[in-house]
Each structure stands twice: as structure tokens, then as C-alpha cells.
């Protein structure tokens, strides 16, 4: 692969990241080629030693996704980080899925239940006393208030748990960001080279 | 199996190796990557995502130096935090590798 082809593929693969980050990254690899050529290596040789550009792209994207989650705690950044980690496709992350999915499901379930509680409480509080006959006015109002505050409370706890859960995933993902096989395999030096 | 062990080992020590190289003097990425590729057989492209992460973690900082051949070079240097991290990781590594060597050597 030529220098231009490698850099074009890199730039295309990083699309969607902030422009300044893309320029920085491409400039780093461009400089790498310049240094290599100055050291007397061919472009194809340098590109081969850099490894599969798709692998490089996945690692850089994952890193960018995780960094964004650390800077802004919102659902889109969370989804971004989780998908970036999954995109690394490391086997031991896939092995985690049977553990991760039930936890995510339970969190989602509790979240929905909290919202429902809030909704039912609000209805009970606002219209209950006028619709339901045979129960004391104050009891209905207080039950409504109680349900709403319980819903809010569980909702907050679930949000905190979700943030903690995604942090744990991100931490785990980070352990896997550095070199996996393709970047490594073809370039393991012979023993004589190490000694030299 | 041997291969998988090697990958895991390298992943673990890569950051420590970069910290060690930089503790002996500032360097630019091509220099770091070719020394590590030669020393521990790391893929050359791996260094760039790692350097970006170390920079966002505040372990290294960059500065530009004019080069006689071509555009200015981006040099990396350890920050205060990077230096502390290196000291801590180095003693952890030494303790750990001594313990493993003891076991391999049959001392336990």
C-alpha cells in the first residue's frame, strides 16, 4: 500500500470524529512515513509495518469514543463508547456479553418501572380524588405523592448505577485498546535482531 | 497459546516501556516506535493510539522542534505525573517479575 492510500483510508475511516483530531492523527502517520522514507525504507514496507489500517482505525475510534464519554456524560456519548468498545471485536469482550446484557436489561427494566411509578403517582395525585370514590381524599393525594417520590428516587439510583456500569465497561475496554494480533504478528523480530 | 501470552504481556508493559524510554530523554514517535518494534516486536502503528491516550491522561506532553530535513518534529516528554507513574509502575513491575522469576526458578 502506498503512503497516499494508507492516509486516505485512515482519513476515511476516522470520518465523524472532530476535524482537529482527524488532522492530528493523519499528520502523525504522515510524519511517520516521512521519517521512514528518510531512513531509507520504501512506502510499502512502512505501510506493512504499521499494520492493518482498519485495526488502527478501530483503536483510534475506540479511544476517541471513550474519551468523549469521560468528558460528557450523556446517553449519546455512552452509546458511542459502548459501541466503540464492542467494535474492537476482542473475543474476551464478546465473552462478557452474557453478563453485560442481563445487567443492562435489569437496569432498563428498573428505569421503566420508575418512570411508570412516577406517571401513576402523578395521575393518582391529580385526578384520583375526583375519579375514585369511596377512598378518603387525603389518602389518594398522599399515595400519589408517595408514588411520585418513590419513582424519582429509584430513577436517580438507576441513573447512578447505569453511569457506574458504563464506567466499568469503559475501564474494561481500555485494557484492550492496545495492540491486538494484526498489528503485532508479522513483525516479531528474530532473536538475532534483539541481540544486535 | 504462547502467542496469546505474548500479546497479553506486551499489552501490559507497553506503556511502561514508553515511560522508560522517555524518562531517559525526550523522543519523537517514529523513534519510540522503531525502538519498541526492535526491542519487543511491537507493531509500529500501535504507538500512535497509545501516545494519544497517554497525552490525554496527562502522562506526556508534546512540543515541536525544527528539523533540518522536512517539517518540524513532534517530540514527547514526560510530565510530572508521567514521571510519578513511571516510578510507581517500575517498582510494581520489578516486584512482580522478581516474584515470577522466583517461581520459575523453583525457589518456592
Key structural traits:
heterodimer, A: 196 residues, mainly alpha, 81% helix, disordered C terminus, B: 108 residues, alpha+beta, Arc Repressor Mutant, subunit A, three-stranded antiparallel beta sheet, 4 helices, elongated
Shape of chain B: elongated
Coarse morphology of chain A: rod-shaped
- What is the count of β-strands of chain B? 3
The largest contact between protein chains, plus residue counts on each side, is: A-B, 36 and 31 residues
Order of helices and strands of chain B: HEHHEEH
Instruction: Please give the CATH architecture of chain B.
Output: Orthogonal Bundle
CATH superfamily of chain B: Winged helix-like DNA-binding domain superfamily/Winged helix DNA-binding domain
Low-confidence stretches of chain B: none
Contiguous helical run count of chain B: 4
Structural class of chain A: mainly alpha
Task: Tell me the quaternary state.
Answer: heterodimer
Q: What structural category do the secondary elements of chain B indicate?
A: alpha+beta
- The number of distinct β-strands of chain A equals 0
Main pleated sheet of chain B: 3 strands, antiparallel
**Helical residues, percent of chain B:** 55-70%
How would you sum up the major sheet of chain A? none
Briefly note the CATH topology name of chain B: Arc Repressor Mutant, subunit A
Fold topology:
The complex is a heterodimer of chains A (196) and B (108).
Chain A: H1 3-13, H2 19-38, H3 43-50, H4 53-71, H5 75-87, H6 91-126, H7 128-131, H8 137-175, H9 181-184, H10 191-195
Chain B: H1 2-23, E1 27-28, H2 29-40, H3 47-56, E2 60-65, E3 73-78, H4 80-104
Antiparallel strand pairs in B: 1-3, 2-3
Explain what the structure shows.
Chain A has 196 residues and is mainly α. Chain A has a domain at 73-195. Chain A is built from 10 helices and no strands. Chain A has helices at 3-13, 19-38, 43-50, 53-71, 75-87, 91-126, 128-131, 137-175, 181-184, 191-195. In chain A, helix 6 (91-126) packs antiparallel against helix 8 (137-175). The longest helix of chain A has 39 residues, at 137-175. The model of chain A is unreliable at 178-196 (pLDDT under 50). In chain B, strand 2 (60-65) and strand 3 (73-78) form a beta hairpin. Chain B is of the alpha+beta class and 108 residues long. Chain B is elongated. Chain B has a single domain (2-87), classed as Arc Repressor Mutant, subunit A. The model of chain B has no long low-confidence stretch (mean pLDDT 85). A 3-stranded antiparallel sheet of chain B has the order 1-3-2.
Amino acid at each position: 500500500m502506498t503512503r497516499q492510500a494508507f492516509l486516505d483510508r485512515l482519513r476515511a475511516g476516522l470520518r465523524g470524529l472532530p476535524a482537529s483530531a482527524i488532522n492530528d492523527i493523519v499528520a502523525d502517520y504522515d510524519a511517520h512515513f516521512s521519517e521512514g522514507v528518510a531512513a531509507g525504507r520504501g512506502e510499502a514496507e512502512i505501510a506493512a509495518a504499521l499494520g492493518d489500517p482498519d485495526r488502527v482505525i478501530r483503536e483510534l475510534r475506540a479511544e476517541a469514543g471513550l474519551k468523549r464519554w469521560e468528558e460528557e456524560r450523556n446517553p449519546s456519548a455512552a452509546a458511542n463508547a459502548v459501541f466503540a468498545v464492542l467494535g474492537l471485536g476482542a473475543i474476551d469482550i464478546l465473552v462478557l456479553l452474557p453478563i453485560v446484557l442481563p445487567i443492562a436489561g435489569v437496569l432498563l427494566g428498573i428505569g421503566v418501572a420508575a418512570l411508570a411509578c412516577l406517571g401513576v403517582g402523578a395521575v393518582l395525585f391529580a385526578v384520583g380524588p375526583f375519579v375514585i370514590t369511596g377512598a378518603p381524599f387525603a389518602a389518594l393525594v398522599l399515595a400519589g405523592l408517595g408514588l411520585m417520590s418513590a419513582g424519582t428516587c429509584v430513577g436517580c439510583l438507576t441513573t447512578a448505577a447505569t453511569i457506574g456500569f458504563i464506567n466499568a465497561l469503559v475501564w474494561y475496554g481500555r485494557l484492550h485498546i492496545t495492540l491486538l494480533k494484526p498489528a503485532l504478528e508479522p513483525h516479531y523480530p528474530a532473536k538475532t535482531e534483539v541481540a544486535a | 497459546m504462547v502467542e496469546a501470552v505474548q500479546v497479553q504481556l506486551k499489552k501490559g508493559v507497553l506503556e511502561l516501556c514508553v515511560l522508560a524510554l522517555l524518562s531517559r530523554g525526550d523522543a519523537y514517535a517514529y523513534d519510540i516506535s522503531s525502538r519498541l518494534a526492535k526491542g519487543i516486536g511491537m507493531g509500529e502503528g500501535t504507538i500512535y493510539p497509545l501516545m494519544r491516550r497517554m497525552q490525554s491522561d496527562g502522562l506526556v506532553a508534546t512540543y515541536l522542534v525544527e528539523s533540518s530535513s522536512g517539517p518540524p518534529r513532534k517530540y514527547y516528554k514526560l510530565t510530572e505525573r508521567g514521571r510519578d507513574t513511571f516510578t510507581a509502575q517500575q517498582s510494581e513491575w520489578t516486584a512482580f517479575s522478581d516474584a515470577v522469576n522466583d517461581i520459575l526458578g523453583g525457589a518456592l
